[in-house]
Design a protein that fits this description.
heterodimer; A: mainly alpha; 3-stranded antiparallel β-sheet; 6 helices; globular; B: mainly alpha; 16 helices; about 0% strand
Chain lengths: ~120, ~350
């Protein structure tokens, strides 16, 4: 099975998984930052609890889509916080999902707003 | 304690519902994240929403993590399939606890022993056959134990125990008149009862050793001797229960005895180390024995409770009952710890006899 096929087989992602991966796209984050970012991106519609987040993180780690990262602020704050970052595989999965969702939205726009609107 | 302190304490309490392996890997981080979320929230309503969301979701998500296939929280390990060394999952714990509660529930609803034994025996026989078919997985050990217990009790009822005693002992017992020696006689008969159970278990395992199919079970017993203790503990449950329920008016105490023993078995399944596993069994046995004594004393009313607790106000009958219960407890402790000694015996050569 080619890597593209293997990635396609993972789709569609659940909303929580998608939002977590999207949150990590700009760079590594720790748990609470992921929760806040997901709430921000979804405009308050999706609010992760720690149980939901830490139910998903182990699965994403096991799937190899994310990996632990070093915290550059650990020395400054004295706190040990675990950061998570997207792996290359996770990046590919996210891109594939974004493309899939984009195709769906484009098809919807064509039907609703563009050519062929109103036809059965 | 501050409000934040109480919230963290409650969160930690709910976190304990998660599997141990998951907690050890993720618990601290989850707690830190929750603390960070609590610190960042502003206003009572927002805090209420946060706390409500967290505290309501944790128990459900904890249950889901118990039911997930594979080993919860053991990411990255090459073999994550549940085995004898991995923690026992919640469904298996519940199944074992339910099964071990059957005798107490039967007595609680007033089922006579003459009906309880065949019903329990029938259920156990079906599960025993299933265990035989599957090569006796871990969940079947309580079934084996209870089955041994049921058959031993029938053996006892038929009077075979006394008939199998060598005549020299019967003569000695009959000649005892010194009250000081009566305790020795009591200890002898109690030991004979429990020894017959132990011998039956050893005989059963010996038969299994001859069949190659059950080699894996015996290997497990050798690697973890507490499994033998667990089997004997479950075997002793029914005997302890039925031997101490004298009248149908004691259903509550039957249930308490059963619950004490079930709690010990439950705690065994949840324990990681061998010492804590055995300690769980001994604790369950002690609680059950305490319930036996409490049930007997309550029949006599709560009068002179202080005198009873210091043993000074006990009648001769009550003292004999206490001694008998203590002897039962002591013999069972001895047999539960016996596998720790027997593991040093050269059983491997015996097991090889079963090579096909």
């Amino acid at each position: 099975m080619s890597s593209t096929t293997a990635i396609q087989a993972q789709l569609p992602l659940t909303e929580v998984t998608y939002l977590i991966l999207l949150s990590l796209a700009p760079g590594a984050r720790h748990g609470y930052a992921i929760m806040k970012d997901v709430e921000f991106m979804s405009q308050g519609r999706v609010v992760l609890s720690t149980g939901t987040l830490y139910g998903a993180l182990p699965r994403l780690l096991e799937a190899g889509w994310i990996e632990p990262a070093d915290d550059p602020q650990a020395g400054e704050t004295g706190r040990v916080r675990k950061l998570y970052a997207l792996t290359n595989l996770g990046q590919q999965v996210l891109v594939a999902e974004v493309e899939r969702l984009g195709d769906l939205v484009a098809a919807a726009r064509r039907r609703v707003f563009g050519r062929g609107a109103g036809q059965g | 304690m501050s409000r934040t302190g109480w919230l963290l304490w409650t969160y930690r309490l709910l976190l304990s519902l998660y599997p141990r392996a998951f907690r050890s890997q993720w618990g601290a981080e989850m707690e830190a994240t929750f603390a960070e979320a609590v610190a960042a929230v502003h206003g009572g309503p927002a805090l209420l929403r946060l706390v409500g969301r967290e505290f309501l979701s944790l128990p459900l998500l904890a249950l889901r993590s118990h039911l997930q296939p594979g080993c919860p929280g053991c990411l990255g390990k090459p073999s994550c399939e549940p085995g004898w060394e991995t923690p026992v999952r919640l469904p298996e714990q519940l199944a074992v606890a339910g099964l071990l509660s059957l005798p107490g529930l039967g007595v609680l609803i007033g089922m006579p022993v003459s009906r309880l034994l065949p019903l329990l025996g029938g259920i156990l026989l079906l599960l025993l056959l299933a265990g035989l078919w599957l090569g006796f997985p871990r969940w079947s050990l309580p079934v084996m134990g209870l089955s041994l217990s049921t058959f031993s009790f029938i053996y006892l009822l038929q009077g075979f125990t006394s008939q199998s005693v060598p005549p020299v002992f019967s003569v000695w017992v009959g000649s005892v008149s010194d009250p000081g020696q009566e305790l020795v006689v009591e200890a002898f008969w109690a030991g004979l009862l429990w020894f017959s159970l132990f011998a039956l278990a050893a005989l059963g395992l010996g038969v299994l050793a001859l069949v190659g199919r059950f080699r894996q079970l015996l290997d497990r017993l050798r690697r973890d001797w507490t499994l033998g203790s667990y089997l004997l503990y479950c075997a002793g449950m029914l005997m302890l229960l039925l031997a101490n329920i004298q009248a149908p008016s004691q259903p509550v105490h039957a249930l308490l005895i059963n619950l004490g023993l079930v709690a010990g078995a439950w705690s065994y399944l949840r324990s990681q180390g061998r010492l804590t596993r055995v300690a769980s069994l001994l604790a369950g046995l002690t609680v059950a024995s305490g319930a036996v004594i409490a049930g007997e004393w309550q029949l006599d009313g709560l009068r002179n409770l202080a005198a009873r607790l210091t043993l000074s106000g006990l009648t001769e009958t009550q003292m004999l009952f206490l001694q008998r219960t203590a002897l039962d407890w002591a013999w069972l402790v001895l047999f539960i710890l016996a596998p720790a000694v027997l593991r040093w015996l050269p059983l491997r050569s015996f097991v090889r006899l079963g090579d096909g």
